[in-house]
Amino acid sequence: MDRSSSPGDELRAAVEARRELGPEFEDSLVEGFLEKMDSEIDRRVDERLAARAPAVRPSVAAGQRLALSIVSLALGVPSTVALALILDNPGFVLAVIWVGIIAVNFAFAGGGQHDRRR
Question: Of 33, 38, 39, 78, whose CA is between 20 and 30 Å from 62?
Fold first, then answer.
């Protein structure tokens, strides 16, 4: 449907074509009209969604955050078990390791936050 023609114009054209062609073409005329209306609705929805879409994408993908979390756990848990078995009092060392792991994960996940607010 042209942007210059309105849905009312399209409907009038379909009704006029039905008068000229007769009732045997009514189904195909109605289908054609509905396809034009469907395309027009899709176009308008796409325009509205494009207007609402954020201009800046996050800099860190969700997959990268998930991968870092998995790697952190895969390295942190065995390290915890190993230190618990090796050291008599591993509390302080374990606390430092896990605080570091958590800090790295927060820093990595928060890296794209500033871009989204602008």
Answer: 78
Which residues neighbour 39 within 8 Å (Cβ) at sequence distance 6 or greater? 1
Alpha carbons within 13 angstroms on the beta-carbon side of residue 116 total 9
Nearest to 103 by CA among 111, 113, 92: 111
**Residues in CB range of 30: below 8 A, 6 or more apart:** 14
Q: What is the DSSP string of 27-74?
A: HHHHHHHHHHHHHHHHHHHHHHHHHHS-SS--SS-HHHHHHHHHHHHH
Q: What is the pLDDT of residues 56-91, one digit of tens each?
A: 665 567 778 888 888 988 988 998 898 888 888 888
CA atoms of 94 and 85, how far apart (whole Å) = 12
Integer Cα distance of 13 and 92 in angstroms: 81
CA atoms within 13 A of residue 80's CA, in its CB half-sphere: 14
